[in-house]
Amino acid sequence: MQPESAANRYPAPNARAHAPRVGAGGGLFFLSSRGGADGVWRVQNEVATELWKGKDGGAVATPAISPDGSQICFPFRKSGRGGMYIMSSDGTNIRPLAPSLEVRSAASWSPDGKWVAVAASENERARLFLVPVDGGAPVRLVDSPSYNPLWSPDGEYILYSEPLGGSEMIVKAITPHKAAVQLPRIYVPYTAATPYRLVPGRKKLIFLRDPSSAPGVGYRSWNFYQTDLVTGRERQLTDLKPGYLMQSFDISEDGKQIIFDRFRDNSNIVLMDLAR
């Protein structure tokens, strides 16, 4: 396991930064605020740019990046309603995506860049929908309550979270053609951010867990765990300092590092090597 000393603060220029997502070529997208609702920011070549201002509709979850890196989409909330915007990765050409949906969590792109999977509602609890990027009606994929979609790199299935009770959820998978996919039993907490990521090039899922959330335990002890989706073998990856809340993370393009946020009074984005 990697210890607390292996984690180093990522040099984001903002006092408060969270919900990181790795972009093509080493850039980084994240959410931040200058006071008020969160906007969308990008750091590229050590230059930070605000792509979307929170006053125009607060971003509520991690931006999703298209496979070619040319576009991002993100959920926002304005005037009491949730929606989703899509824009070029430089902040231009912004437009609403699936305006009929009340978006509830971060989105995920299909590997061919033609669809976005998102948890949203139509006068009911959140369900999983597939949204055509170039326009058209959303397609409901899951009929039961479902959150946190994550498209596999080969496009064969989409991971999602199904509520069990309280804040606990179980990870499930379904194909774009609505066929269930068998997975090992993996439990994650509820969060508006996606609490798991697939390791590039391997059938392994890294996810967040807080064993200290059991009744009677009065501190936070968030750590990263990994499950082999073929064998079901699980192991703990980190032994980090307790007392922080962790909500969102991503994995570097080469699969060697995890970048994550954690909160106390403020939050930092942290970079660490992923032990092999």
What does this structure look like?
- Residues 214-218 have low confidence and may be disordered.
- The protein has one domain (8-201, 250-273): Neuraminidase (6 Propeller), CATH 2.120.10.
- The chain is built from no helices and 29 strands.
- The strands form seven sheets. Strands 7, 8, 9, 10 and 11 form a five-stranded antiparallel β-sheet that branches.
- The chain has 276 residues and is an all-beta fold.
- 0% of the residues lie in helices and 47% in strands.
Largest sheet: 5 strands, antiparallel
Our measurement of the CA-to-CA distance between the termini, rounded to an integer number of angstroms, reads: 10 Å
Mean pLDDT: 88
Secondary-structure content class: mainly beta
Low-confidence stretches: 214-218
Using only CA atoms, what is the Rg?
A: 18 Å
- Named at the architecture level, the CATH assignment is 6 Propeller
What is the oligomer described by this structure? single chain
The CATH class label is: Mainly Beta
Order of helices and strands: EEEEEEEEEEEEEEEEEEEEEEEEEEEEE
Protein topology:
Layout: E1 2-3, E2 8-9, E3 17-22, E4 28-32, E5 39-44, E6 47-52, E7 58-59, E8 64-65, E9 71-78, E10 81-88, E11 95-96, E12 102-103, E13 108-109, E14 115-121, E15 127-132, E16 139-140, E17 147-151, E18 158-165, E19 168-174, E20 180-181, E21 187-189, E22 196-198, E23 204-209, E24 223-228, E25 234-236, E26 238-239, E27 249-251, E28 257-263, E29 267-273
Parallel strand pairs: 1-26
Antiparallel strand pairs: 2-29, 3-4, 4-5, 5-6, 7-9, 8-9, 9-10, 10-11, 12-14, 13-14, 14-15, 15-16, 17-18, 18-19, 19-20, 19-21, 22-23, 23-24, 24-25, 27-28, 28-29
